[in-house]
Design goal:
This protein has nine helices and eight strands. It is α/β, with parallel strands linked by helices. Strand 2, helix 2 and strand 3 form a beta-alpha-beta unit. It binds zinc ion.
Length: 259
């Protein structure tokens, strides 16, 4: 079985000190590549370093997470310059988007939208797909995507309904959704419905490590090596042989990132 982790953060302090062990456990469980996603500007160097240490296994996805939307112009312009300068070794711009979960202050929301749009435009200019983080912001995210129409998107750790997904699938762009540990949770009714009702071709496997560990590791630090648990849950819902399900999911991830 060949597996891709399309969205993780091995650069996170919870995993980075043990990166070697994390990567060898991933390899032992069939994971052949991991896409570390940027959040802050400070994460960029760590992610690029990992792609050099674990060449051909760790790949770079760089972008500024909405939680940093109140940072200065200088902060964002430096980040964009970094992305442009490292274009050759970047596979996508992410994770970028909107997050209204903790704070809906109007200025913060306006800044999030502005920086999301700027980064979508940067990705379009560089001809890169985008990885989207959207939390409690379904309609605003959809509206921005409708306006900007980036050609290739991954709605990472998708938490929306099947109705909102249908709206995305009407757009003239390539839409994928990231499915992670949540699919193994007993109470993940909405995501299970989304997985059961849609074609395999739209799904990407991800862990979002070190967050959202699948059952039975819930509450622990997540890592890419737990991906077989997520694939098993998808195969069970789709009633597919595990190997076939894994092969399709691998191809989806490889095509999305162009590896
Ligand atoms: Zn993430």
């Amino acid at each position: 079985m060949k597996i891709i982790d399309t969205h993780c953060h091995i650069n996170d302090n919870k995993l980075l000190p043990n990166a070697k062990e994390v990567v060898s456990r991933a390899l032992a469980n069939g994971v052949v590549s991991c896409f570390n996603n940027g959040d802050s500007f400070a994460s960029f160097d760590k992610i690029v370093e990992l792609s050099k240490t674990f060449k051909g296994f760790c790949y770079n996805v760089l972008g500024i997470h909405p939680e940093f939307a109140n940072e200065t112009n200088d902060y964002f312009f430096s980040s964009y310059r970094y992305i442009e300068e490292h274009k050759e070794i970047i596979k996508a711009v992410g994770e970028i988007g909107l997050d209204y979960h903790f704070n809906k202050d109007p200025l913060y929301v306006a800044n999030q939208k502005k920086r999301f749009i700027e980064q979508i435009r940067l990705a379009k200019k560089l001809n890169l797909p985008i990885v989207i983080h959207s939390r409690d912001a379904d309609f605003d995210t959809l509206n921005i995507i409708k306006e900007e129409l980036p050609p290739k998107i991954d709605l990472h750790c998708f938490s929306g309904s099947n109705e909102i997904l249908k709206e995305y699938l009407k757009l003239p762009i390539e839409v994928h959704i990231g499915v992670g540990g949540v699919i193994t949770f007993k109470n993940s009714r909405v995501l299970k419905e989304v997985v059961s009702k849609n074609n395999m071709e739209i799904f990407l496997t991800e862990t979002d490590s070190p967050y959202l560990a699948p059952t039975p590791h819930r509450g622990e630090a997540n890592e890419p090596g737990y991906l077989p648990l997520i694939i098993k849950a998808i195969a069970d819902i789709k009633n597919l042989p595990l190997e076939d399900c894994a092969a399709t999911l691998y191809n989806n991830g490889a095509n999305f990132y162009g590896i």
